Fold:
Amino acid sequence: MRRRKTSGAASAMVQKNRIKKKRQIDALLFERIGLSKAKKEVLLFSKKGELITNPEAAIRDPYIFEFLGLKQERTYTETQLEQAVLDHLQDFLLELGKGFCFIARQKRITFHNQHYYIDLLLYHRKLKCLVAIDLKLGEFSYQDAGQMNFYLNYLRKEEAEKGENPPIGIILCTDKDESYVNFALGSIANKLFVSRYLLQLPSKQQ
Structure:
């Protein structure tokens, strides 16, 4: 009987390790480590899992959006990018990480008969806060930060429920300069993050 128990425990451990390895491969762990500037944090995540205690822990950089089926070299609009995300919403939420839930697309904000739209509005169960996402085709610009800051101020005052934490914003762009981002976000009190996304992994030649 003891041998059977030991064999069963060993088998369960082997299966557990296989599942863990598959998840790492599916998440493109090694490529993400190579592309990320926070290599230690990504590696720690792979070993311990997703321990989200603050907004910073929930943000990845870069995100890998190969599942959208969009080619890096092709020309497409932000509307087409957003539609591709919605068509693959489950994959998109999985890539964002654990805890993200979809609320709305093109969430409308109206001031003095002027309409403004948040590309995607999500909610994070662990952080207990709204998450605004802005999809950008090109490089990050300081105007993007001002726009997102406006959205977050509105969400905090008009949309957040009692007991929730302040909303956070994620600007997804194809490229960014870290120094430029730091200057653009320097005086903003809201939790605002700028992350890159890749439509396909770079080749070894790249």
Q: What stands out?
A: The chain has eight helices and six strands. Confidence is low (pLDDT under 50) at residues 1-6.
